[in-house]
């Protein structure tokens, strides 16, 4: 069987199984078993493939995923996140558009720790959009920042999606996490500048309203008691990784422990909150591990059937410049984001894109960061980005898709500008990992 026939057969089975409603991870697993029977010699090949797949689940690099997810679940269910939201809101005082800034800052914390852009968008959309509409904010000032927080959250550590991508691509987990720090800060600056410009161009988009005056001492106390402890946990684990004192797994363990201690100190660590946190983290972890299993076996099948080598050779035969090939891969991810979730997209594209990136002499850490940004941008790209429809579902009645589209464009532009900067100046991503 030719390589393109093998590739068409494997991808075709996956597409058909997903089309009939089978969960993505199970669709990959079923297609892999059938493929192993065809390409690896029947039952013996299936057994070998499954043994290799189980081996991929024993990697130490996977440990941060459940721990980062537990951090996020505890952060949400114990109310620590809500306390931070309220504190930032009060600290910003009468700043024009302050609820938009609160959405970016607080939403990034939620999205980063939860690892789910869709879940964070649904939560923030139902929580912040009605509140901002009640205070006279125009829709683009509330919807836009919520849609934008995902791009920020996916690259700033701790990011469960970054850990998963690094594991699937077999690259250094710590390096990919650390690589996102400087680009993440740049993107945060772009978002803040965008909100500032929007309020300057149209002051009525975010009208000021009276707030209770606070003394400097009261603000300082609020900052120290409600914001610094929450943000401090994330900062400490990032610094520990950058300095090389801990591995990503150890950093995740310290982070989870830190959030649990904070919840206990603030007397909000209840049995109910702990149960909800563990169940939520377990649910997503099991899905992630199924994804890893499916990806490992799918990569082996692509290699064994000759499909991966044939595809790479075919791609480079066009003699396109590396930048042009990067644009093609970026466009493919934007297209897939209209129909698939991020983890599903990673499962499908990582086994193909990373060997191609290595052939093109791209730095794997730099390419991994570009891919993370592409995954998130694709989620908010009109007309079919999935986050756009999630926002439509939770936005106030009467919100049109056109309003949602126009709200998303400035923040998509910020992310695309960051990608352009990373292409022009790769050291923005590579300086800290080599520090």
Layout: helices, strands, pairs:
Layout: H1 3-19, H2 24-39, H3 43-56, H4 64-77, H5 80-91, H6 98-114, H7 117-134, H8 139-153, H9 160-169, H10 173-179, H11 181-201, H12 216-242, H13 248-265, H14 271-304, H15 307-316, H16 322-336, H17 342-359, H18 364-379, H19 386-394, H20 401-424, H21 427-430
Low-confidence region ranges? none
SSE pattern, N- to C-terminal = HHHHHHHHHHHHHHHHHHHHH
Structural class, by secondary structure, is: mainly alpha
Q: Would you tell me the overall average pLDDT?
A: 81
How would a textbook summarize the main sheet?
Answer: none
Number of strands: 0
Descriptive report:
- The protein has 435 residues and is mainly α.
- It is 77% helix and 0% strand.
- It is built from 21 helices and no strands.
- It has helices at 3-19, 24-39, 43-56, 64-77, 80-91, 98-114, 117-134, 139-153, 160-169, 173-179, 181-201, 216-242, 248-265, 271-304, 307-316, 322-336, 342-359, 364-379, 386-394, 401-424, 427-430.
- Helix 4 (64-77) runs antiparallel to helix 14 (271-304), helix 9 (160-169) packs across helix 18 and helix 11 crosses helix 20 (401-424).
- The radius of gyration is 22 Å and the shape is globular.
- The model has no long low-confidence stretch (mean pLDDT 81).
Feature tags:
mainly alpha, 77% helix, 435 residues
Compact description:
The protein has 21 helices and no strands.
């Amino acid at each position: 069987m030719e390589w393109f026939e093998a590739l068409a057969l494997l991808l075709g089975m996956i597409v058909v199984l997903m089309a009939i409603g089978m969960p993505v991870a199970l669709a990959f697993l079923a297609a892999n078993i059938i493929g192993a029977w065809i390409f690896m010699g029947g039952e013996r090949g299936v057994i070998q493939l499954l043994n290799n797949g189980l081996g991929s689940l024993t990697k130490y690099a996977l440990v941060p995923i459940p721990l980062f997810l537990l951090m996020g679940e505890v952060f949400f269910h114990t109310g620590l996140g809500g306390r931070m939201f309220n504190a930032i809101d009060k600290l910003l005082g009468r700043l024009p558009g302050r609820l938009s800034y609160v959405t970016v800052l607080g939403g990034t914390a939620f999205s980063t720790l939860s690892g789910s852009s869709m879940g964070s968008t649904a939560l923030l959309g139902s929580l912040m959009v009605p509140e901002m509409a009640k205070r006279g904010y125009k829709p683009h000032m509330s919807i836009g920042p919520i849609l934008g927080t995902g791009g920020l959250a996916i690259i700033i550590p701790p990011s469960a999606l970054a850990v998963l991508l690094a594991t699937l691509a077999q690259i250094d987990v710590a390096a990919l996490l650390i690589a996102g720090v400087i680009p993440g800060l740049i993107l945060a600056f772009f978002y803040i500048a965008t909100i500032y410009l929007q309020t300057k161009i149209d002051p009525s988009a975010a009208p000021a309203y009276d707030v209770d005056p606070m003394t400097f001492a009261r603000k300082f106390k609020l900052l120290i008691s409600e914001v610094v402890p929450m943000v401090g946990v994330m900062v400490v684990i990032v610094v520990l990784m950058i300095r090389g004192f801990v591995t990503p797994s150890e950093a995740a363990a310290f982070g989870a422990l830190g959030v649990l201690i904070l919840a206990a100190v603030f007397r909000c660590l209840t049995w109910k909150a702990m149960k909800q946190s563990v169940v939520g983290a377990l649910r997503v972890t099991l899905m992630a591990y199924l994804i890893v299993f499916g990806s490992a076996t799918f990569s082996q099948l692509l290699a064994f059937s000759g499909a991966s080598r044939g595809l790479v050779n075919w791609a480079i035969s066009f003699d396109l410049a590396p930048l042009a090939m990067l644009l093609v891969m970026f466009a493919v991810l934007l297209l897939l984001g209209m129909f698939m979730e991020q983890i599903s997209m990673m499962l499908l594209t990582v086994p193909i894109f990373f060997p191609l990136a290595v052939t093109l002499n791209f730095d794997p850490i730099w390419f991994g960061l570009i891919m993370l940004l592409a995954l998130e941008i694709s989620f908010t790209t009109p007309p079919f980005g999935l986050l756009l429809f999630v926002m439509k579902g939770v936005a106030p009645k009467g919100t049109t898709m056109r309003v949602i589209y126009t709200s998303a464009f400035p923040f998509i532009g910020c992310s695309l500008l960051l990608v352009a900067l990373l292409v022009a100046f790769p050291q923005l991503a590579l300086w800290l990992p080599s520090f």
